[in-house]
Write a structure and sequence with these properties.
The protein contains eight helices and no strands. It has about 190 residues and is mainly α.
């Protein structure tokens, strides 16, 4: 006949003590793992937000630079013939020269997009290619619109045509960048809020 003392609660718990200890240890480990991964998830979320804010700042400054390039190109395009004459003979002034001089000073003060170039890795590939093209065109235009360089490089018969073509290209490239950045800025702005 079995003894009733063998089936007491203490005896059952005593027999399953290693199993209960393992279950408690597993629960504690799961709780510690959850707490550690929660911290990692929080840190990742903070880092992603900081990167998004950095991108937003770079995109907004690039958009502002592109808008300025677009505005100046739009201003110069109708004055291509006058600009051509001015660049060939800067010592001979005409009535339009103050406007042209002022616009050329704006060109020379325009950002060369160095910050954008330094942060090109933050841009999607299509916009990065556009930025690269705009930057090269801008540097080419600024270099060749210097009166000394222009007289050496320009074909006198096609100078005004070249100036019109360059300003049209700069205006179109800058407008495309502004448009594409509008969408990215809106997306990032909504995600950051």
């Amino acid at each position: 006949m079995p003894q009733p003392a063998d089936h007491c609660l203490y005896c059952i718990l005593r027999d399953f003590q290693p199993t209960l200890a393992a279950i408690i240890a597993l629960g504690a480990a799961a709780l510690a793992y959850y707490a550690a991964t929660q911290k990692i998830r929080h840190d990742k979320k903070v880092a992603d937000r900081e990167l998004a804010l950095r991108r937003l700042g770079v995109y907004m400054r690039t958009q502002s630079d592109a808008e300025l390039v677009e505005m100046i190109a739009r201003t110069l395009k109708p004055q291509a013939k006058t600009l051509h004459a001015y660049l060939l003979r800067p010592d001979q002034r005409s009535a339009d020269d103050p406007t042209i001089e002022s616009t050329l000073k704006k060109w020379r003060l325009t950002s060369d997009m160095n910050e954008t170039w330094q942060n090109l890795h933050l841009f999607p590939a299509p916009i990065a290619r556009r930025v690269n093209g705009l930057r090269r065109s801008l540097m080419n235009f600024v270099f060749e619109s210097d009166s000394t360089n222009y007289r050496l490089l320009a074909d006198p018969d096609r100078g005004a045509e070249w100036l019109t073509q360059m300003t049209t290209t700069l205006e179109a490239d800058a407008a495309a960048i502004v448009s594409e950045l509008d969408h990215l800025i809106a997306e990032i702005g909504a995600a950051v809020e």
